[in-house]
Amino acid sequence: MTTSFDPRAVALLRNGNSHVAAGRYLEALPCYEQALKLEPQLAEAWISLGGALVVGLTWAVLGGGWRGLPVALLAGLGGSLADSLLGATVQALYRCPICGALTEAEVHRPCGQRTDLARGHRWITNDAVNALSTLAGALLGAAIWRRGQTTERGGARQGRG
Predict the structure, then answer these.
(1) Shortest CA distance to 8 belongs to which of 30, 28, 36?
(2) What is the pTM of this model?
(3) In 49, 151, 157, 161, which residue has its Cα 20 to 30 A from 94's Cα atom?
């Protein structure tokens, strides 16, 4: 990964992710928007917004109903955040000893050289990170949905619904 981004955009992206982690979803959106204004190529911000939107719309169109859209959006965003966190911390990242380039591959194709593990764990590939982040998003969505169902039933029992 040789691209470097404006540190202000990266800070805004992290700030948006912090808002999401704290449950302040609407406060996260302006952070992502500002990050994208500074760095339109900042893929993670586009992925966070776009991924959450696609999951939510798919949920609504395929029968989950529009009532489930916020849950699906949060689950998609949660999965995206898990992907970013796992990718940045435990996913294997290798360095080519010839040119110094960082790559996810054990062999750097341009040089044809075997790479050295720079960080992470060899057995945690991008596919493993994708599977774990998808599972995290699904579990988050199920937990939010279940809590909403429990809250609705409790409110109805107490004469509020």
Answers:
(1) 36
(2) 0.55
(3) 49
